[in-house]
Design a protein that fits this description.
Strand content: 15-25%
Structural class: alpha+beta
Distance between the termini: 54 Å
CATH topology of one domain: Heat Shock Protein 90
Helix content: 25-40%
CATH superfamily of one domain: Histidine kinase-like ATPase, C-terminal domain
Low-confidence stretches: 103-107, 398-405, 481-485, 640-648
Radius of gyration: 28 Å
Shape: flat
Largest sheet: 8 strands, mixed
Strand order of the largest sheet: 7-6-5-8-3-2-9-10
Mean pLDDT: 84
CATH architecture of one domain: 2-Layer Sandwich
C-alpha cells in the first residue's frame, strides 16, 4: 500500500552540503561526458522513485537550446512545507544539503535507487544555476539556486489545476567543473529507454531542442524486460523462447528474463531498484551460480553428461544467453555513489532461491527449450576445450622475460604504480620515443602496422597474432577471464597503458583496433582506468618576427597546435607571414625533445583516459562498427557523422 503521508516531516537531514565542487568525482564519477550526463540521471531517478511509490506515470526530459536540461514529472511534488528541524522549506533541504531526502526511514519511499540522498544537492552544487518548480495544491512554487546557494526564496509564481502535481527541475551545468557541458543525447536516450523497460507502467518523453539535433521520442514498454531481451536479440538467430519469471521472497522482488541466441557470447545485465549495476554483484552471482547448477543437474538426469564427465562451466552454460536480472530491494548497498555493484548477501540468496524454483518449473514444462539450452552448453564446452589447448600451445611456444619481450624497451622501475607503457606504431616513432622517454618509468612497445581486428577473428587467430602475443606478455596480467581464467589485474606491470599513434586516419584506425582488443579481451584495463590515448600536436608555429604592438609574442616564440581549430585561432591572432608552420605528419617527424615536450612529459602532455559510459551501447556499437555486417555500419556512420569532433 502506497504511503500518502509525504510531507515536510518525511525529509530527514543527515548532514549539510559541503565539498561537492572541490571533489565532484566522488559524487558523479567523473567530470567528463559521463559525469555530465549523470546529472540528468540523478534528477530523473528521483522521478522514477516517485513512480515506484505509485505517484508518477509521466517523465519529460528535455535538452534545451541554451545548454540547460529540464526534467519534469507528474508525481506528488517535492514537499514545500517548513522542515521541522531545519526551519526552511523541505525542498530547500533537498537541494542544499547532502544526505537529506525522503529515502531514509519510513517517511518517503520503500523502494529507491538513490538511497544516499545526495543526487539533487550534488546537481545543484555543480550547476551555474538551478531552478525548481513544484506544482501542488493548485499553485506553482519556484526557487532558484546558483552554484548550490539560494538566490531566490521559495515563492508562488502562478496557479495550476488542483490535480496537476509534480516537480520540474532545470539546470545549467557549470563549465568550471566539467570538461565539456554538451550533453550526449545517445547515452541519455539509451538510459531512458532502459528505464522504460524496467518500469512497464511508466512513459518517458525525450526531446532535444538543440540546433542541428532536434528530436522527439517517447519510451513506453508495457512488456517490460521481456521486450528488453527481445530488442537486445534483434537481428540474431534465437534458439528458444524468452523465459520470464517474477517472484518476491523476504521483501525482495526478483524479475528475470532470458533467451539464447546462436552466438558465442553472453550478455547479462543486472539492475537493482532501476539502477544498472555495471559490475554485477550478489544478484548476478546468485543467478549465475544457481542457473549453472540447475543446467548441470538436468544434463546428468537426461544422460547428456555421464558420471565420468566434468560439469559444464558457468561460461559454457551461459554462452549464447541474453538476460536481464532485476531486483527491487528495500535497503540496497552499492559500492560507490555511481552504484556499479550490488553488495547485499540477501539479494544473492533470494535470487538463487527464486531461480532454482522458477527455472525448474519452466524447463519441466518446456523440454525442447531445455534441450536447446543444453545443446548451447555442449557446443561451448567443445569450443572451450579446443581453444584452451590452442592457447596453451601458442603461448608456451614463445615466452618472454619482462626485459626481453620482443621489441619492448622496458623501464627501469618495477613499481607498477609509477610505470607506464607507450604503444607506438612503427620503428621510426618507436626510435624517437625510446630516445625521448624517461627511462626510469616509461616503457616503449612498438607494434608493426595495424593489429588484427579481433571482432572478426576466431580465438586461435587472435592468439597466433604476433603483436597481440607481445602485448599480452608485456602487460603481464594474462587476458580475457573465462579463457582459462588467468586474467589477474593485480599482476599488471604498468599503471598507464598509453596508445600513442600518428594524428591521422591510419593512427585513428590503429587506436580503434587496439581499443577493440582491450574491450573484448582485457576489459578490466578500461574499467579500472588504465588505458589512455596520447594527444600529439598536429602543428608547431614559430614567430618569425614580433607583431607591431609587441603583445602577441617575440621572434622565436613557438607554440604547439593540437587540431585545425587551434590553428584557425592562431591565424586570427597573428598576421599572415609573421610565423612559420610545421605540420607533423607522424610522430617520427618530431625530434626527441619535441616528442618529450608535447607527448611524453607528464607535466605538459595531454592524455585522454578511455572510459565506458554505457556498457550496453558500447557492446552493441563495437559489434556493429567492427563486425562483418556492412549496412548497419554505413547507417550508423551516416546518422552520426555530424557528431564527430576532435578533442584538444
Amino acid at each position: 500500500m502506497a504511503n500518502h503521508n509525504y510531507d515536510e516531516n518525511s525529509i530527514t537531514i543527515l548532514e549539510g552540503l559541503e565539498a561537492v565542487r572541490k571533489r565532484p568525482g566522488m559524487y558523479i564519477g567523473s567530470v567528463g561526458t559521463k559525469g555530465l550526463n549523470h546529472l540528468i540521471y540523478e534528477i530523473a531517478d528521483n522521478s522514477v522513485d516517485e513512480h515506484l511509490a505509485g505517484f508518477c506515470s509521466e517523465i519529460y526530459v528535455t535538452l534545451n537550446a541554451d545548454g540547460t536540461a529540464t526534467i519534469k514529472d507528474n508525481g506528488r511534488g517535492i514537499p514545500i512545507g517548513i522542515h521541522p528541524k531545519a526551519g526552511i522549506p523541505a525542498v530547500e533541504v533537498v537541494f542544499t544539503m547532502l544526505h537529506a531526502g525522503g529515502k531514509f526511514g519510513d517517511g518517503g519511499y520503500k523502494i529507491s535507487g538513490g538511497l544516499h540522498g545526495v543526487g539533487a544537492s550534488v546537481v545543484n552544487a555543480l550547476s551555474v544555476w538551478l531552478e525548481v518548480e513544484i506544482r501542488v495544491g493548485g499553485e506553482v512554487h519556484k526557487q532558484r539556486y546558483e552554484q548550490g546557494k539560494v538566490v531566490e526564496k521559495l515563492h508562488v509564481i502562478g496557479t495550476c489545476r488542483k490535480n496537476d502535481t509534480g516537480t520540474t527541475v532545470t539546470f545549467l551545468p557549470d563549465g568550471e567543473i566539467f570538461e565539456k557541458t554538451v550533453f550526449k543525447a545517445e547515452a541519455i536516450k539509451s538510459r531512458l529507454h532502459e528505464t522504460a523497460y524496467l518500469n512497464p507502467g511508466l512513459t518517458i518523453h525525450f526531446e532535444d531542442k538543440r540546433e542541428g539535433s532536434q528530436e522527439k521520442i517517447t519510451y513506453h514498454e508495457p512488456d517490460g524486460i521481456k521486450a528488453y531481451v527481445k530488442d537486445l536479440n534483434d537481428g540474431k538467430e534465437t534458439v528458444c523462447d524468452i523465459v520470464y519469471y517474477k517472484k518476491s521472497e523476504e521483501g525482495i522482488e526478483v524479475e528475470v528474463a532470458f533467451q539464447y541466441v546462436n552466438e558465442f557470447e553472453e550478455n547479462i545485465l543486472g539492475f537493482c531498484n532501476n539502477i544498472y549495476t555495471q559490475e554485477g554483484g550478489t544478484h548476478i552471482t546468485g543467478f549465475k551460480s544457481k542457473f549453472t547448477m540447475v543446467i548441470n543437474q538436468y544434463a546428468r538426469e537426461l544422460g547428456i553428461l555421464k558420471e565420468k564427465d566434468a560439469n559444464f562451466t558457468g561460461m559454457d552454460v551461459r554462452t549464447g544467453m541474453t538476460a536481464v536480472v532485476a531486483v527491487k530491494h528495500p535497503a540496497p548497498r552499492f559500492e560507490g555513489q555511481t552504484k556499479t555493484k550490488l553488495d547485499n548477501p540477501d539479494a544473492g540468496t533470494v535470487v538463487s532461491s527464486v531461480t532454482n524454483d522458477e527455472v525448474q518449473l519452466y524447463f519441466d514444462k518446456n523440454l525442447e527449450s531445455l534441450k536447446s539450452v543444453i545443446a548451447c552448453a555442449e557446443k561451448s564446452a567443445k569450443i572451450r576445450k579446443a581453444e584452451e589447448k590452442a592457447k596453451t600451445n601458442l603461448l608456451t611456444k614463445q615466452k618472454f622475460s619482462i626485459d626481453g619481450n620482443g621489441k619492448l624497451a622496458n623501464c627501469e622501475s618495477r613499481n607498477a604504480d609509477e610505470c607506464e607503457v607507450f604503444i607506438v606504431e612503427g620503428d621510426s616513432a618507436g626510435g624517437s620515443a625510446k630516445t625521448a622517454r624517461n627511462r626510469k618509468t616509461q616503457a616503449i612497445l612498438p607494434i608493426r602496422g595495424k593489429i588484427l581486428n579481433v571482432e572478426k577473428a576466431s580465438i586461435d587467430k587472435v592468439l597466433a597474432n604476433a603483436e597481440i602475443k607481445t602485448m599480452i606478455n608485456a602487460f603481464g596480467c594474462g587476458f580475457l577471464e573465462g579463457y582459462g581464467n588467468d586474467f589477474d589485474i593485480s599482476k599488471l606491470r604498468y599503471n598507464k597503458i598509453i596508445i600513442m599513434t600518428d594524428a591521422d586516419v591510419d593512427g585513428a584506425h590503429i587506436d580503434t583496433l587496439l581499443l577493440t582488443f582491450f574491450y573484448r579481451f582485457m576489459p578490466e584495463l578500461i574499467n579500472q582506468g588504465h588505458v589512455y590515448i596520447a594527444t600529439p600536436p598536429l602543428y608547431r608555429a614559430e614567430l618569425k618576427k614580433a607583431e607591431k604592438d609587441g603583445k602577441k609574442g617575440k621572434k622565436g616564440d613557438s607554440v604547439y597546435l593540437y587540431d585545425d581549430k587551434a590553428l584557425e585561432r592562431y591565424r586570427k591572432d597573428h598576421a599572415s607571414g609573421t610565423f612559420t608552420l610545421q605540420r607533423y605528419k607522424g610522430l617520427g617527424e618530431m625530434d626527441p625533445e619535441q616528442l618529450w615536450e608535447t607527448t611524453l612529459n607528464p607535466d605538459t602532455r595531454i592524455l585522454k583516459q578511455v572510459e565506458i559510459e554505457d556498457a550496453r551501447m558500447a557492446a552493441e556499437v563495437t559489434s556493429m562498427l567492427m563486425g562483418s555486417e556492412v549496412p548497419p555500419r554505413k547507417q550508423f556512420i551516416y546518422a552520426h557523422a555530424n557528431e564527430a569532433e576532435i578533442d584538444a
